Write the structure tokens for this entry.
Amino acid sequence: MQLTEIRKAAVLGTGQMGPGIAYTLACAGCTVTLFGRTPESADRGLRAVTAAVETLVRGEVLGPTDGADILARITGSTDLGAAVVDADLVTESIAEDLRTKQDLFVRLEGLCPARTLLTSNTSGLPATQLARPLQRPERFAVTHYWNPPHLMQLVEIVKGEHTSQETIDLLVALLRRAGKQTAVVKKDIPGQLGVRLFNGVIREAIWLVQEGYATPEDVDTAIKNGFGLRFPVWGVFEHLDAQGLDTVLAIQSYMFKELCHDTDAARTLKDKVASGELGARVGRGFYDWSHRDLTAIKKRRDEFLLEHLKAQRRKDTPTA
Ligand SMILES: NC(=O)c1ccc[n+]([C@@H]2O[C@H](COP(=O)([O-])OP(=O)(O)OC[C@H]3O[C@@H](n4cnc5c(N)ncnc54)[C@H](O)[C@@H]3O)[C@@H](O)[C@H]2O)c1
């Protein structure tokens, strides 16, 4: 299969992630069917795609004509068979449950042509296990988008034990054509790349608060204004090589034994969950949310991501 042969895509699931995935595949030039189980769900999904495109047009990431062209390529459907019957790629973004996803993929193999690539947006279920009941596991991979998918550029592509290199190469090429940045995970591992790396930071962050070294505010301040601020242009391995590996070794020799080594969920986290401090939705987690506005914080995050995308787009567009 050639990249140019991937023309029709179907996206299953109209929750937080599905609409942004449909938008992405339409950006790659595909006509996309967004499947929801009910007319209300399909409509909600299409409205979310429209809202995402409007945000990107308002933020000058997309021109109005491009936005309209992308929307024209996406339709909704409640008929799974019709949505996937001639699809070259089907991406599911339904409930995070192994059996539910496996059952869906088995069903899809019966409905789709043999050539169809099947992908899952799972947050961490192993690609190999998801593909276990499949007849054609070589055409299956995980494509893990980041939330919000119309603003975050990364898609991790996870190779299962039987995924072919051709499948990986096609997905990388397609997602790059959509303007995404791809990272391939060569061997199936729980949490893929980003979720593992983030959890390393989360483990240490909670431990520092739990042991009384700093407040959640100060840990967040350190992350947002320290290493987090330069991450978009300064990766870990760039940093290590710039610092000099002998210096890195000297630091690790005394630092690593000091870091949190817990292999179970954090004590503080368990205590908070047991006492009902579940986070913003109940008014208290690590922060007291009675004086904080989550909606405003999310808005600021999305505006920041939009500005970043706009700057990226300017950089990638050659000037005349
Ligand atoms: N939300 C995130 O930040 C995020 C990020 C990356 C990956 N993911 C993964 O993406 C997937 C979807 O997550 P979400 O946050 O969009 O979930 P969500 O609950 O917002 O949406 C799930 C959608 O799937 C539908 N659905 C559920 N079971 C179904 C089934 N059996 N058949 C068809 N449709 C079904 C629901 O009606 C809903 O529209 C999950 O696997 C999740 O782990 C989520």
Remarks:
- The mean pLDDT is 96.
- The chain has 14 helices and eight strands.
